[in-house]
Amino acid sequence: MMGTLAARTRAGQARHGKARSAMRILAEGTAQYLEVDPDGYRAWVRDHKQRALVPKLMSAADAVSRFVADGDYFVFDCNYFQRGPSTLIREVIRQQKKDLWLCGKFSYVDVGLLVGAGCVSKIDCGFFWPGATIDKAVADGRVRVFEYSNVVMTLRLQAGAMGLPFLPVRSFGGTDGFEHSGAKLVEDPFTGKPITLVPALNPDVAIIHVQQADRYGNSRVFGTGIAHEESALASRKVIISAEEIIETDEIRRDPGRTSIPYYAVDAVVHAPFGAWPGNCGGYYGSDTMGVIETFSSIARDAVGDYVAKYVTPFATDAEMLEKLVGQERLDRLRAAETISEGYRA
Q1: What is the pLDDT of residues 241-270, one digit of tens each?
Q2: In the chain, fewer beta carbons within 10 Å around the N or the C end?
Q3: Residue 205: beta bridge partners?
Q4: Are 276 and 321 in contact (CB under 8 A)?
Q5: Quick check: 172 and 194 in contact, CB under 8 A?
Q6: How far out from the chain centre does Cα 135 lie?
Q7: What is the pTM of this model?
Q8: What residue ranges define each of the domains in the chain, with the CATH number in brackets?
Q9: How far, in Å, are 82, 93, 132, 134, 180 from residue 236 at the CA level?
Q10: CA–CA separation, 68 vs 97, rounded Å?
Q11: Using one digit for the tens of pLDDT, what is the confidence trace for 44-94?
């Protein structure tokens, strides 16, 4: 068997060695993409991310003011209806951040809200619910959309988290979306067959809602997730909002439950019901009335009315939840979440 393996190895080297010493580009998309600079990202992390245990608790207003800048590449995990960072998204809108480039993966209405509020100029599209708000913004030239897929956007984040310039994927090549992306189709130097490469993604800022975090940023996600770890480890700045702030002794008691380590995190926001009107697994169910109203605002190109009702009149999201939603309704949402196994330490 060893002799056969050696023969196959020599044959492979002879067949592929010199002829495929360089990777040949067969086709490439035409879209703009965020600059790929894994070494620059590593240097940024080295110079800006503390390894000391420094308390990072602050308000949503302070976190967004300090760590979300106009023109940032902006990623959020999950979506407005499922453990999404809804409190933080509303704070971004409240502060009227501009010219954001969004990572729109596995999403629904979050992209539409940010577009309708005038915060966005570019979108990398995995999937999001369009509606009249986005259709009009694209038609008017206020927003540009570059096409990928949910899987491809997630793999781009994974490449960024791994410190790689790209990852190969066995999909996407040959699609219409490929033409409007930053991907490349190349000749695999090992097999000579076509393979698609997608550029790594290192966002400027990630916002992520979790079930539990300590004051240093150690965070726990229970249940369904998309790419919270990849988003946190690939991004220069990371804001965590959490349903509960727990003691660090609890993190140390069971470190295997930590999903995002403290040294990746820049700010921690205590945000009970921070995923409203969506659900947060093990904590509360989704608010059907709130979900329908959000969909409707984007379908009718009426995000301005939604913002005028739920965002701008209030200094904080907690004030909005108290005055517009009310404790009785929030208590009903908690009672509606009947599955708790696996959602608590």
Answers
A1: 999 999 999 999 999 999 999 999 999 999
A2: N
A3: 74, 237
A4: yes
A5: no
A6: 22
A7: 0.93
A8: 38-336 (3.40.1080.10)
A9: 24, 21, 33, 28, 26
A10: 8
A11: 999 999 899 999 999 999 999 999 999 999 999 989 889 999 999 999 999
